[in-house]
Amino acid sequence: MSNHIKVGYRDIAKMFCSAMPIEGKDFGDKVNEYLDIIKRMPAEAKVALKSAYIFSRKVPREEREDLFQELCLAVLQVKTKDEKLGYAIARCDWRNWWQKFYTRQHYLAGSLNDTVLDSENQPVEFAELIVGEVEFERKIDGKMDAERIYQRLPDTIRPIINNRLIGKALNAVERQRLSRYIKKEGYKLLLA
Hints:
This protein is mostly helical.
């Protein structure tokens, strides 16, 4: 199977080097060094890195390194060369992580409207990550998971999600309706 998961090894190498206190040409050289190391790894390790990378990018920035390690270890323990299986394992562990995170945040008076950093380190409301999850799933898994999530949305929320997916701005009523739904039921979509 050729590159089912569309993550480049360079992306993973950059992630490893991003915490190092180097810049410019030194950073590029270090990325290339890590890229060579990754390319020489066994197929099972590459699958683990790709799967962990994808899902660790979908959590708040301050949690990414820890989750990356947990996901990578979970996939490595299975010793699979099958990217689909690695992806499924990482996704299940990621969903479990979100369930624990939501519970922890709920008891700490956190909110789904909290601002977190997305994969490009831009601030975004957690509610927007759910919309992004639907979009991401459609890209990665075709329609399988996204359609299941979409079908679980109430009829009043589906048009709002459709508008957001096509880039249409929401009016105040739609924003309020989506916000209420996210606060009350939205986290369940991540566990679907």
